[in-house]
Amino acid sequence: MNGLIFANRYEVIEPIAKGGMAEVFLAEDRLLNRPVAIKVLFPEYARDEAFVERFRREARAAGSLQHPNIVGVYDWGAEHGTYFIVMEYIPGETLRSLLKRYGALPPNEVARIGADIAGALHFAHGRGVVHRDVKPGNVLVTPDGDVEVTDFGIAQAGPSQDLTQTGSVMGTANYFSPEQAQGLPVDHRSDVYSLGVVLYEMSTGRPPFRGDNPVAVAYKHVREQATAPSKINPNVPKSLEFVIGTAMAKRPEHRYADAGELRTDLRRLLRNEPPKGSSMVGRSGAARRPTSQDAERQIRPRKRNGTPLMIAGLVMLIVAAVALIMLLIQQLRDKEGSGKEFMMESSIGQTEEVAVNVFEGLGLEVIVERKANERFPAGRVFDQDPGEGIIVSPGSEVTLWVSDGDTPDVVPGGIVGSSAEQVTQMLEGLDLGLTITTTRERSEEIERDAVISVDPGERQPLTTDQTVTLVVSDGPEDGTVPTGLLGLPYNEVRDLIKEAGFLPTPGLVQDGSVEPGNVIRVIPDQGSELQKGSEVQVIVAAGTSNVGQTPNVGAQTAVPSVLGQDPSTARANLQAAGFNVEVNASPGEPTSDPAKVGTIVAQEPLTGTAASGSTIRIAVGVPAG
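and the corresponding structure tokens:
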């Protein structure tokens, strides 16, 4: 995909992330000179109308939402046999990766991040959009701590219909609301429940319910009460526990009335104020304010005894059984309804034994590969293929990569040929206290300021405070532009310049004092010192000439390209070719490439011929933005 251009505007640079139905790439908007993220639907799903509709829904839903905590959508369309969405590029990482790295977060961070998510959801809800897949993987956190909600791929604008109708289950099992788990219609309060689950996970380092498969987890959302967060993490204050419990109430009418109320209580926690809570319905049907005991009961198992409770429990069991059947159908049916294919779930972070048992229980053939991994302890799964969200059939192979423990620090690969500045930053980023020294050598193959070699070599072990030596290219050897070229035929001059190690490029100028086809001037001048491989422009008298198939252009003169030259050199070259020059130095032409700033980035006309004495307009590059 690298280098592929969408809509004649967005050039793909490198992959960022991969999901169940699409891959996200960093790209450059060549029209506005800014980075963007472009989500590209996998080609196999571009032929499936259900997935395409989901993709369109994301573009329409997110495109209508302009909010500081929602990733903006700029453009979308169909090209290269698939569909794409162009989004705001947010540097940073997902909340999921933060939780994997740090586990439970401090209560203030939980409240701050949660309040921003709630604010984004409240804004979306106010415009009739329900997210329906709120989870840490759909929350981005920048290095400055800014929070942005993304992936409205299964969002629904307007009243519950289509994917929200009874019997249809969409979302992620760990963050299902009870109504989602049962295939019932959902509204904005379902997002409140899912955010409550995210708050629980941020507070404890784990989701409230875990099971061997998505069906078991969804069942627990319907049937079971979660352990109080403070029982898992004693640092969770009762006030935050109350907020989580209220958001995670099983019945929608017992939750916060909307995400705005939830945001208000989270912001009160940041000010060390007690939460106000939301309205709840008492036994008499009248609205009342919840107490701390109410919230605690939402996330703590109740004791059940007596006939009425047994009957109520039986009813709940029947409802849960129906929900399980619907979920099982949803997980095991393929896109055409054959009932054989299902969607992969993630096993990342699970023990090898649990992951193998789960996937073998689903009828998959499991292959285990063991590798060193510094992020996951020995015995834990750190990667899998196929990944989460991929449709597979029973009997398919799934490969699990299981950690063998810490990875020894080594010299990264891909150093040779990379810029010395980038390599230095990469090595310093290893945080080993390395001493980095450089020496420089001439090289015919490696461009100037790129790394020729590294000692120790790539992939070799490193130790703390070790010295790493980079050999950096000074480019090819310098040479001398030959002398005695003026007045000679172009073909002879061309061969002499090539023999000296330079690249000759011809240019024509109308000059009646020199025989047509003979050389009037070379740029740089004869005898100049120049790095081999550089361009030497050969100015030839126009008329009947032996410069390849160049015709007699009469009063017309070939226009030499001066792109990339500094303004003074460009002016001199164009004047030497017989043209007047107009330099557009203010305000200049914006460019996102620092190497082009201060050089000529635009020329009119760029190629062809023009009347001798006419004006050539050139523009100097200035920093974009």
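(Above: one complete record from the training split.) The chain has 16 helices and 31 strands.
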